[in-house]
## 1
Amino acid sequence: MIAHDSHVPLYIQIKDYIRLNIQAGVFPENSRIPSERQLAEQFQVSRLTVSKAINELIQEGLLHSHVGKGTFVSSTKIEQELRTLTSFTEEMIRRGQRPSSRVLYAAVEPASSEVTKALLLPSGTKIIVLRRVRLADNQPVALETSAIVAAICPGIVDKHDFSQESLYQVLREECGIRIAYARQTFESRQATPEEQEALHLDPHTPILGITRVTYNAQEQPIEYVRSAYRGDRYKFNAILRYGE
Amino acid sequence: MIAHDSHVPLYIQIKDYIRLNIQAGVFPENSRIPSERQLAEQFQVSRLTVSKAINELIQEGLLHSHVGKGTFVSSTKIEQELRTLTSFTEEMIRRGQRPSSRVLYAAVEPASSEVTKALLLPSGTKIIVLRRVRLADNQPVALETSAIVAAICPGIVDKHDFSQESLYQVLREECGIRIAYARQTFESRQATPEEQEALHLDPHTPILGITRVTYNAQEQPIEYVRSAYRGDRYKFNAILRYGE
DNA sequence: GGTATAGAGTGGTATAGTCCAATTTTGCGT
DNA sequence: ACGCAAAATTGGACTATACCACTCTATACC
């Protein structure tokens, strides 16, 4: 399986091995692959060599990992299909940067008129408001405020630490909510004083402002988000379809 | 410089150090940066830690290396500045504004490396370059440069007046080319001097920069566009699908 | 029955060293 | 001066080991 005397580097051979097993269905989507220590023992190589192979596959989007849990096969459609909308966390991992967050505010409160309008809610509906500074490699990249109807996902504010976890992942795994599509607007503007402070910006720094309403497959609005991305640190990628 | 007792991983600090030195011009473009062993000695870390930092920067495209020669700062010019967008004409009509254009440049010429890379073309391929100021109700809104393979739509530069006609409409009706989807990047930045002049802007005006590669249904790249939209006059709307 | 807590397992980070192949530099013999 | 071989340097690959923070689970305790 793995040839130590080959001219092909071991970590490349291990990458190929894992990739083939994913393609062959031996490692199904979302399943855990053997631990780095197990693979190192199996192939009689050092753990670092296995780790290098796995990290390159993470970089390529085939795998993702969590300390203490293991390494998992990603849903491969993300890269292969024409797929577009990713959470900040997933997008940063795909780019090879480490995402993290600083939670500025997290609470349940009645929806503002801006939110009721965007999500088509009756006024007074309780929503979860989550306001975070998003960081990539520990550098602040964006200020983001999310609003989700509290009833569809009760109690997640207290149960989860969103400085580490992905909101979309929690919605998916904890509440069974799958986001199907989103309407977004993009604009370029100057930073507000609040954004300047939160993101450590100079005045005149250009901001990529994004508002987003996400919907499930039943076309019910799920979440409303306003984000301010640092223009000098972030480019937004999207695949857009014509017509329909 | 490098704090061993910080909570920030050493290799991240080293990445930041190198990145900052590149930005500050200490490590100019195409220059050699210190060897891995020198940096390891300088920061009192193991060579592997420096190597990890450098390899991630190589991954990100900031550096490139050759065994026996060293590690060099890549030239970033290729990925810098200018962009484009959807059918401006159709979008403006949808918004109830009157679209028009001022053609700054229209010619057939060999593709630049930026274009060949984006459209996956052999170098030297002839392309149509179309550079226009886009206006809404006679107010300049964007500066847009399009590149299309000349062979797929011969002679349209001479036959059509793109100050009035929509490029996409001509492609569709004259050449039978239907655009299926596009990959776009969005960014927020300050206007370049050229854009300031073309769009009558003050310095510091935020620009919504968009690059786009459009594809037909057969997934062949058709067109590469770079646009600069006035941040104060334009918001971009999109519907994005979430995969999986 | 519920709740701490201890332990095992996980990936992340880091060290110190080895060998290798590609490349540049150096120095020696002519 | 010149050519060429040896030496030094460089990044690439790899091993063995260590400690950390996190996650999960099983056990002990109340």
## 2
Amino acid sequence: MPDTPGSDGLTVGQVSARLGVTVRALHHWDEIGLARPSLRTAAGYRLYTAGDLERLHRVVVYRETGLGLDGIRAVLDDPTVDVPGALRAQRAQVAERIDRLQRLGAGLDRMIDAHERGLLLTAEQQVAVFGPRWNPDWPARARRRYGDTTQWLQYAERSASRGPGEWRAVADAVTGLDRALGDAMDAGVAPGSPEANRLVERHREVFASYFPLTRRMQVCLGRMYEADPEFAAHYDGVRTGLATWFRRIVDASARAHGIDPDTATWQ
Amino acid sequence: MPDTPGSDGLTVGQVSARLGVTVRALHHWDEIGLARPSLRTAAGYRLYTAGDLERLHRVVVYRETGLGLDGIRAVLDDPTVDVPGALRAQRAQVAERIDRLQRLGAGLDRMIDAHERGLLLTAEQQVAVFGPRWNPDWPARARRRYGDTTQWLQYAERSASRGPGEWRAVADAVTGLDRALGDAMDAGVAPGSPEANRLVERHREVFASYFPLTRRMQVCLGRMYEADPEFAAHYDGVRTGLATWFRRIVDASARAHGIDPDTATWQ
DNA sequence: CTTGACCCTCACGTCGCGTGAGGCCGGAGA
DNA sequence: TCTCCGGCCTCACGCGACGTGAGGGTCAAG
């Protein structure tokens, strides 16, 4: 009985089942000469002998260490190769990959937090950075209102990489702008004047630390500042009537750039 | 000055320097339509506008999370995609990969230990498994003598996956064989007899738990048992003269298989 | 004689670029 | 004006370890 399974060799399927590797992998290892069957049937079927199985088993063992096929070939065929050394090198690589993945995971956690909370600072940090008039509920409320917009995404992406120091700079820029706007209104700067237009540009630049803002979006924002009680309260807290004056200088600037502020949309 | 850098776009090299990505990556992202420049010069140079830079920056951010380019495309272009969900899925994948790598690292540590110490058991475990006649220095001495042979490699590979239970089974098989050999010698079993040959085969099978043993290697091993004081002491401790008798039954069996025991080599 | 499970050999696809090859473009110095 | 050098362009193959068909032979059983 020369073709009883096991008497002179196992077929790819049988080896595959025994060693838990795919048939294709066996073909591949045969192709590249890493582990070839010593026998073939007349029909060309691969037959793996007991000795072949030995080698295959060693291949499987070293493959599980993450060694590349060339490395495995070296370990199996080159008696001068330093196997424990190769294993230790492999171990170091694995440790490094774990490190990288852990850093990546931490970065992901930060981004997830930024998307969900809008800000990575604790309530105390927020008050310390943005001042006592800051309400720590605002980020969560902003997320509920705008969380499904592209701009929220962009804002979250930026927030992920900002700590207290960066936020302090943003807050300083914003309060500086508020002061400049109030002073200009006090000084009687007229909408459409070069000075007013410069302030509008400055607002766009400062605001870009949250997300990129087009002129049209800025127009919508100006109207929102005026209409939304919370925003209006903020600007009127700087100077009475500032929200309205700001809308007027934005509208005038938009008109100067060929935009009709009454039909402008957010998109 | 329509071609001042920055006025209407940056070239690939400038973008590459700013964002810390390779020029080839920019080409690639252009090819697959992930992030294309809005402009080209007459000569075909890519020119990235401020808006293009925005998009590129977002690509870079999400690429750092390990998201695939198709995933990034979805995040950037499909407003219905659940970004925090995608990030959390990515986070879970990362955690799983860390897990796998940590298991892989543990496996590597075991293999390294097996190669270096020859045995993963503590001295106490060794004595518990192999009995009071066992000397815990033996594995280290064996490594010094045979550590550069293929057989040591195979032995170490097997050792890496053996705990006390498996070693107990091996030890039992060995002591059972020793007893059977001693009994047979006592009973006057003759070298070359079927019973002696069966014992030789049994020895090869038992020994295969250390590493695969050919008949020729077995012949050499028989001579070593007789010549090496330590091995001889062990077998003579079972029965006086057992080492010599064992060599004789191995020789006889080898001759029956067409091997000249006096010229057989380990290879 | 057919069926269905198993085997064979191509040969392309994967993923995100790296790495040339071969050649055009643009600003600066001789 | 010529030349030089650095930067840009478009192919197009390579990588690593197979996955996944396509198209077709083989083998034991009914």
## 3
Amino acid sequence: MHLVPADRADRRTIDGHRVCEAIAAIGDADRLRTWAERFSLLADANRLALLLALHRTGPLAVSDLAIATGMNDPAVSQALRLLRAAGVVAGEKEGRVVRYRVVDADVRGLLEHCGD
Amino acid sequence: MHLVPADRADRRTIDGHRVCEAIAAIGDADRLRTWAERFSLLADANRLALLLALHRTGPLAVSDLAIATGMNDPAVSQALRLLRAAGVVAGEKEGRVVRYRVVDADVRGLLEHCGD
DNA sequence: TGCATAGCTGCGCACCTGCGCAGGTATTCA
DNA sequence: TGAATACCTGCGCAGGTGCGCAGCTATGCA
């Protein structure tokens, strides 16, 4: 395997073959960025609280989320907008109430994972 | 269940009981922050690349990691310092080479999770 | 001993992020 | 129609983050 890109092929390696293994292990850069972005969505305690609440108790209204988390409404709204733009949550409008839920399967997996 | 803290007990709720369920679902604030910090360590593409390389190919030297990821040495070193301070990786010195590996079980679980 | 190499550190800059505040829109109800 | 409610948005600030650069320490080898 010769996976080292041309622009760094001249650098000295410690374990040459393991470098190639490492490059293969890292894989596609796009997939990498996608996962990093996913993790960054869970990397804030407030957003994580919102997601856990939605994941474990089902659809919830914005102001109820605000009370449950101790945030105030605009902060909740902005966090949900971010999560919605990323395709992690979706909101359904019923009258003047919007109930959100988690729709991304990967994120749900991560939320399960941090349960124990 | 009356889990709503006193400082927000006067606010109007949409679904009162679900707010209590949500508070229970969120759980302990410390555990929440711990997980958020864990996620934030994986929330950078470079750090994630380092961790995936270490996780999947075993112990690797700093300069090999730099070549594999395309970062330069100080950046790798700083990222590893951060991860080491968080107890995620550990380094073993052999002569003038330091080989790092992933030692945190939770993070390893997350790295497995983002394999597919 | 002298030199090259592996790795670490401090500093500074550009960039991003979360959130509070003030104000706007849409829906409900008297 | 007017008031109250649920939610959303734009703006600005404070704080954090990643990384390049220059320079340092420690190890190995001729």
## 4
Amino acid sequence: MFYEMPNDEPVYPISTAAKMLNISVHTLRMYEKENLIIPFRKSTNHRLYSISDIERIRCIRNAINESKISINGIKTIYSMMPCWEYIGCSDDERANCPAYNSHHEPCWAAKGKGTVCEKKECRNCDVYNKFSECSNIKSFIKNLTRVK
DNA sequence: CTTCTCACA
DNA sequence: TGTGAGCA
């Protein structure tokens, strides 16, 4: 018996990930440039994707193809994540955070400009990982709309 | 042989 | 989205 491999282990090179998803490596790189995905980087600067990365991209593709949502639409949805709740920001930190104040880019795209999360690895952050599966997004919205 | 970045008819 | 140059 072998232990089960965690689904967040970065193991697939970009060519393999592309085949699994039936998309081009160029498209994969584009999604990264658009801040939809944060693949792992080896010391050689080569990208590695995990199972959850693949799932995340499947969710993105599904939104684009079936729901006719644009890249910008997806980014807008990501930008609505209540990151300050997960991180535990104070009211003051939140008010001055470029990530919180952007309604067009996900918080992990606002790195490097005085965010509280400056030092954090967004790839390992709950705010980023909560949306790795379509079902997570659904339950997230469900909780938002639940009537008390 | 694969991937990387950057550019573009 | 695709293709190609020029590297590592």
